[in-house]
Design brief:
Length: about 300
């Protein structure tokens, strides 16, 4: 409550503000001193821990620091029910053009792809940042937007330590092939190398980076997942010259042969997006070291005889 002059009481009296009706009422005589007031305070509760000088009183669109106007521009729309009351103003605004229209579309595409891949916000923001750096260099015009965005997401996943395969990303992209995404990735690395004056840090890929997701796709038990993780870790002591994703797929195939729920090679190939022939070749290289890399608590020596022998 605060003190305000009341015309009926002829003096300053305490007034009560009715938030529901927007009325300011005298606490002594009940006179409505002001009606339908606009509440200019926050539209949400502010707790003690949140108190500070940066309390945003009014709501609005989310602020995006990657856009020139922080996404706080004004858009003039048509009148209600499609009337042409503001049509002329809208036409004038469209004629002027929106310099951020292309990058806003790219950010929306990144967000949609990231949601379909179930990626965290940090990866989504990193991909948007990479694309913004390309846009600042004016080198995106005339290039396939889907391929560029997919490549930005691929690079962001690697930099955040949560890599995705090109095949996984390609599976949710409609307007770009695997080869186009690969070319876009090389283009981005080259352009950012020119900007920074040094090679772009992409992050190192390890076989263990894929395990959780692949094992989850195959519905493997916690015990099997633990055995796969330990096997991958021990395999690093040997010179297996295969890609990390091929090693991960081959070890999953190896461990599932020793479990009760054996997985067909075709199912593993689909879950890991690795060709069956590639898995067989990696398995052939790992097979001689099986006794040393598979944990003893999971499989004894006699159990290792159940492993299928790779064909020469």
């Amino acid at each position: 409550m605060s003190d305000t002059y009341c015309t009926d009481c002829k003096r300053n009296t305490e007034v009560v503000f009715d938030h529901a009706a927007g009325d300011t009422v005298c606490s002594e005589c009940g006179l409505v001193l002001e009606a339908r007031s606009i509440d200019e305070t926050s539209e949400w509760r502010t707790f003690a821990d949140d108190s500070g000088d940066h309390d945003p009183n009014r709501v609005g669109g989310p602020v995006n620091p990657l856009l020139g106007d922080a996404a706080l521009s004004t858009v003039i729309s048509r009148g209600a029910n499609g009337s042409n009351g503001d049509a002329s103003m809208a036409r004038l605004q469209n004629r002027g053009g929106d310099p951020d229209r292309a990058i806003v579309l790219a950010f929306k595409t990144i967000s949609n792809m990231a949601d379909r891949l179930s990626l965290v916000t940090t990866i989504k923001d990193r991909a948007s940042e990479i694309y913004k750096r390309l846009e600042d260099q004016k080198c995106t015009r005339g290039r396939n937007l889907e391929a560029l965005v997919a490549a930005c997401i691929y690079i962001a996943c690697r930099q955040e330590g949560k890599p995705r395969t090109v095949k996984e990303i390609c599976s949710i992209v409609a307007g770009a092939t695997k080869k186009e995404i690969g070319r876009a990735k090389e283009f981005i690395v080259k352009q950012l190398k020119v900007e920074m004056g040094e090679s772009m840090e992409m992050g190192t890929i390890h076989a263990g980076d894929y395990l959780r997701r692949f094992c989850s796709n195959l519905g493997m038990s916690n015990e099997e997942v633990k055995a796969v993780q330990e096997t991958v870790q021990k395999s690093g002591d040997f010179d297996i010259r295969r890609s990390p994703i091929s090693i991960a797929a081959a070890i999953i195939f190896m461990i599932t042969q020793l479990s009760d729920s054996k997985k067909p090679l075709r199912d593993i190939s689909i879950a890991t997006t690795v060709a069956e022939g590639t898995i067989k070749n990696a398995y052939k290289d790992l097979y001689p070291h099986a006794a040393k890399i598979i944990p003893e608590w999971y499989a004894k020596d006699r159990d290792l005889k159940n492993l299928s022998s790779p064909k020469a």
